[in-house]
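Same chain as my last thread, 66 residues:
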Amino acid sequence: MKKILNVDGMSCNHCIEKIKRFVGECEGVEILKVDIDNKILEVDIDDESRLLCIIEAIEDAGFEVK
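reply #2:
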């Protein structure tokens, strides 16, 4: 299932790579798109319960999910 998250604090390609690295550690998650201009992360998850892992990973990377 596709989820779209608003992520505050992204400003460069380094931010994208950091988010991909942290979120990529969550099981059952595939990053579909990171849009810096609109501050959006689009992911595909195999189970709704994966959403908490994604949010925690983004926050651990130093960004805020709105």
